[in-house]
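# step 3/5: fold
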Amino acid sequence: MADITKENVKHVAHLARLAITDEEAEKFTKQLSKIVDYAEMLNELDTDEIEPTTHVLDFKNVLRKDEPKQWITQEEALKNAPDKKDGHFRVPSVME
């Protein structure tokens, strides 16, 4: 991987609309280089026998199975409505 330069840091800061000083750019260059070096250590690991994962935790679906059911009809739903019109519930206006 290419080394992170002070110019790279300044360019990314410019794209992010961040104003950084030369001292900050130097500091961030060192910090980001250490981070990249640490991440590069992962390339040294033997992962041939490791199965890829999509998530580190073993999640299971705890919701019920989605199965179609017969629900009440529109007429049954509106049967006890205090106010209805054209097959819909009528409610007081909340906006003027």
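# step 4/5: annotate
The mean pLDDT is 90.
# step 5/5: archive (pending)
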